[in-house]
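Posted in: Protein Modeling Q&A

I'm a second-year student putting together a small comparison for a lab meeting, and my supervisor asked me to include a predicted structure for MFS transporter. I've never done this before, so apologies if this is the wrong subforum. The sequence is pasted below exactly as I got it from our records. If anyone can share the structure token output, I'd also love a short note on what stands out.
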Amino acid sequence: MSKDELLRRAAFASFIGTFVEWFDYAVYGFLAAVIAVVFFPATDARSGLMAAYAVFALSFIIRPIGGVIWGHFGDKFGRKATLSLSIFIMSAATFVIAFLPSYETAGMLAPILLLLTRMVQGFAASGEFAGAASFLAEYAPDNRRGFFTSLVPAGEAAGLLAASLFVALLYALLSDAQLQSWGWRLPFLMAFPLGFVGVFIRRRLEETPHFQALEQENHVPTTPVKELFKNNFPQLMMAFGGTLLNAVGFYLILIYMPTYLAGELGVGKEAAFLCSTVTLVAYLGSIFIMGALSDKLGRKVILLLCSVLFVVLTVPLFMVLSSITYTGMASTSYLMILMVLALFGVMMAMNGGTLATFLCELFPTRVRFSGFALSYNSANAFFGGTAPLIATWVGGIIGSALAPAYFLTGAAIITFLSIMMARAGGAGSKLEE
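Accepted answer (user: helix_wrangler)
Welcome! Here is the predicted structure, written out as tokens:
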């Protein structure tokens, strides 16, 4: 099989696998308002929503642990087998959620079971993004690595978009009673067939050339995580800080935003999900451009520029959103909301289309999976998965719709400082062996 054919297969498998995993994972976030009613005792709307987002956040606790475990297996036994297993576990856990009893049926057992299955999902997700990015980066040619590796966040965004459209369709076709009774279960049922397709495609791949070279030279690490902390700790800290903007922005802008628009600004649920769709389309439409630009200008330049834009524009854009009086989907006010969110989508693509390649190039092949997985999942666990919960809680305390903007701006500042300390990567950059 030619190198071009191997690259095409690796690219397709990475995209599809990431799509499947993040469709499964995102459905919960988009259905949080319904899940709050189904799984938690009757309280006021904000408390129920906070409980649903608390489960969302708690499922992230397992992700740094998952990053260590998946990183160990990926660096020691190979990328291919690790990725096939992660998508199988994710699909199985998501499928189980469709059959969980409600609070009305099982009492406190219901949210406990929900938390357990979400933690299994979090464990599976902790191996996906880092593994798929490492896999594709190790197949891609040096001068086009940014473009090809951007397929991984593109698959992530496509999974989110599909989940958003599916949930929007449910809101459009079903009544609130039908959604709360059985409608919310439908997207979780799709996990099994989607997961089967993902596993089938990944099992047909060959291991990456870089990992094969390690095996042939007997250089595969025995304890990759220990080696990571001993030899690559500075890179690990740079990667953690460099991921903060992506972690917070991803969950606030691409997951939490429909709930924010509906709860804080009074936008109708269908209109809010359409807003999310527009944001994701802008993100997905820009991500390959940003990946290609990083091959020309360098990862560091793109990531620093993105951080500056978020620091300068986030609060003003949220102020614009909070000042809009929503008067319907056919109104000028709604068009303004769509324009703001489309701009956020393009800004997020600057980060998302570049970050995966940046992280792959920070670490040598021996510990690449471990370094990427641990830094990325730790940032998402401590700051990304908690973002919707913190934004909802702080917004309630200070009575301001700008709470998410302050959080996002702080993350952008830390990311800027972290990226400044890292070496640049760009056209022709080689992966460190």
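A couple of things worth pointing out for your meeting: The two ends are 24 Å apart (CA to CA). The mean pLDDT is 85.
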